[in-house]
Design goal:
This protein is α+β, with helices and mostly antiparallel strands. The chain has a single domain, classed as Peptide Deformylase (Alpha-Beta Complex), CATH 3.90.45.10. It contains three helices and seven strands; from the N terminus they run αβββββββαα. Strand 6 (106-112) and strand 7 (118-124) form a beta hairpin. The protein starts with 25 loop residues before the first helix and ends with a helix. The protein binds nickel (II) ion (NI).
């Protein structure tokens, strides 16, 4: 396994739309394992392939504190969404920034697993938010895109300053 470099906002590659995965093969499984390691190392609770500059529809998520429940979503599709919730979100591509974002409270998603088999999952709470956040990445959307232009510029300035300090 290997740690992968994570793109940082406002890298324009974060705005690329990801392509569907045709076959779940050994290369995809290797990428998913590397993404999981990268996410755990960061540490974070979700990572989309877009964030490691691979523009294919693959997401890894683990919202447990002891990193014990890795979930992999390949070609995820939102089947249903309902309700509304607001919570603070962060992103490994936008380090140190947390902002309140509105999301659907309950969702139902269909995806392929690492075995290539389709599955459906109903989620609410943090998992629902996390899935929506990561699926946005596959569309080339970062959570800060939902904020006002003023806030976005402030975040860009803050990250640029952090980048220079590194
Ligand atoms: Ni993110």
């Amino acid at each position: 396994m290997a740690l992968l470099p994570i793109l940082r906002y406002p890298d324009p590659r974060l705005h690329k739309k990801a392509a569907p995965i045709a076959v779940v093969d050994a290369q995809i499984r290797k990428l998913a394992a590397d993404m999981a390691e990268t996410m755990y190392n960061a540490p974070g609770i979700g990572l989309a392939a877009t964030q490691v500059d691979r523009h294919i529809r693959l997401i890894v998520i683990d919202i447990t504190e002891d990193q014990s429940q890795l979930q992999v979503f390949i070609n995820p599709e939102l089947l249903e969404k309902s309700g509304e919730c607001e919570g603070d979100e962060g992103c490994l591509s936008v380090p140190g920034i947390y902002e309140t974002i509105k999301r659907a409270a309950q969702i139902k998603v269909r995806a392929l697993g690492l075995d290539g088999q389709a599955f459906e999952l109903a989620a609410d709470g943090l998992l629902a938010v996390c899935i929506q956040h990561e699926m946005d990445h596959l569309e080339g959307r970062v959570f800060v895109d939902y904020l006002s232009r003023l806030k976005q510029n402030r975040i860009k300035a803050k990250l640029a300053k952090q980048g220079r300090a590194m």
